[in-house]
Amino acid sequence: MDTNQPTDPADIASRLEFARDIAREAGALTLRYFQNPGLAVERKADASPVTVADREAELLLRSRIEAQFPRDGILGEEFPERPGTSGFRWVLDPIDGTKSFIHGVPLYGTMVAVETGGAALLGVVFIPGLDELIYAGRGLGCWHIRQGQPATRCQVSRVARLAEGCFVTSEVKSYKKINRPEVYEHLQSAARLDRTWGDCYGYLLVATGRVEMAIDPLMNIWDAAAVQPIIEEAGGRFTDWAGTRSISSGNALATNGLVHDEALGLMRG
Fold first, then answer.
1. CB 3.0–4.6 Å: which of 93, 166, 244, 251 could bond 222 by disulfide?
2. How many helices and strands, by DSSP H and E, does the chain display?
3. Does the pLDDT value for residue 110 go beyond 70?
4. Predicted confidence (pLDDT) per residue in 71-93, tens digit
């Protein structure tokens, strides 16, 4: 990797436009398998599910990136990392929310990000089953497109207290897996409302001002990279559970910014 960190706005903008296109293309591919009762589901080493749709969508993303940006690295959930020399690395999750996908629930997404030096420069999340696209680039804002309508600028909510807000999470039993069930209990007690509208869709809800917080005890870099710039460019905060701005800590907290410190305090308490 080059020693100089590439941050030219033109480089970000060109990759963002391309990322939007390939996220839509790969997401459309997954719809060919969605709500198919005959779809075979395998279990990976960590017991998480995977399907042919996950693999085909990631292979499509990789082939498009390799052709357009051959010097960029690629890290994806389903296949080994491909090193690059440009300083840019694409981070891919072809189906974030595979459990929703295999049960015919449309709250799954295709995620595409580009990072350098451990910080995400751009992120795209496409929700194929709802035809919702959200995307952001550093300094370029966060934008939302629903069912072919014109893009609208995203803005997080202005709710200042969890007692007046809603938080979402992906899977409640994940808190027990890391021996931190009290985190969920404290947040649930403090918030007006909590729901499991999770995975990438939950972070889309934060960025579009529909909920105040999304939190996950277990996150891989391909789960986090795309949503970090989306949340931040919409005016929110994205950190790990220690309050550090990171996409590789293994957990995540995304908020409208106003309830972030309150949430961190409850988690520590």
1. 93
2. 9, 14
3. yes
4. 999 999 999 999 999 999 999 99
